[in-house]
Specification:
- The chain is built from 10 helices and no strands.
- It is mainly alpha-helical and 211 residues long.
- The chain has a single domain, classed as Tetracycline Repressor, domain 2 (Orthogonal Bundle), CATH 1.10.357.
């Protein structure tokens, strides 16, 4: 019984690793080619897996997209785990800067994550309601995070202007992050990532701060 349980555990761990490998390859392909241009057969070739084995893990392309969205969402939230308790003690301006810097850091080394969200968002809005809804749910949470900081600066610390709608400002910020990544990728030979994000941070933080 012990050996059988150990074998099951090994198989489960191997299956979990394989799922992550599939999602990593899928995220890269979807970021480069979009939803419609990426086929499951192409993905299977990219990871040197038979289509049958790929379909065993993810029966449809939609299942794969939804799993990838969930995976990236969890990775992004993990960026804030070690600083979340400390952030609550800081000023609203410091919280907003930390929020942007953590997001910038997350995307600095994995720009395909942000491009994936941008590409899939653009296509799914018209092509796939389930994927679009999953993206709205996740991105909506990031909007709530940003809006809460702006509202805190308006109502509690009085650092931020009150003529700025926190929800709209947060939507603009999250949309800007995805847009900057796609734009910078297009101009990657002449435009660097960090300077553009630094300008975005300055515009956002200074824009909501009282003069």
């Amino acid at each position: 019984m012990h050996k059988a349980a150990a074998k099951r555990e090994i198989k489960q761990e191997r299956a979990a690793r394989t799922r992550v490998e599939i999602m990593e390859a899928a995220i890269t392909l979807f970021a480069r080619r979009g939803i419609l241009a990426t086929t499951m057969a192409e993905l299977a070739r990219a990871i040197r897996m038979t289509p049958g084995a790929l379909y065993w893990h993810f029966p449809t392309k939609e299942d794969l997209l939804l799993a990838a969205i969930d995976e990236l969402h969890q990775r992004y939230l993990n960026e804030f785990q070690d600083v979340a308790p400390e952030l609550r003690k800081r000023s609203a301006r410091e919280q907003l800067m930390a929020f942007m810097e953590r997001t910038q850091q997350f995307l600095r080394y994995h720009r395909e994550y942000g491009i994936f969200f941008g590409m899939v968002s653009a296509e799914s809005a018209h092509e796939n309601d389930r994927v679009a809804e999953a993206l709205r749910e996740k991105l909506g949470l990031y909007v709530l995070m940003g809006a809460a900081i702006v509202r805190y600066g308006q109502e509690k610390t009085k650092e931020f202007r009150t003529d700025v709608d926190p929800h709209v400002a947060a939507h603009g910020l999250i949309g800007a992050f995805m847009g900057v990544l796609v734009h910078q990728h297009l101009f990657r030979d002449t435009l660097s990532y960090d300077p553009v994000l630094s300008v975005l941070e300055k515009l956002m933080v200074d824009g909501v701060t009282k003069r």
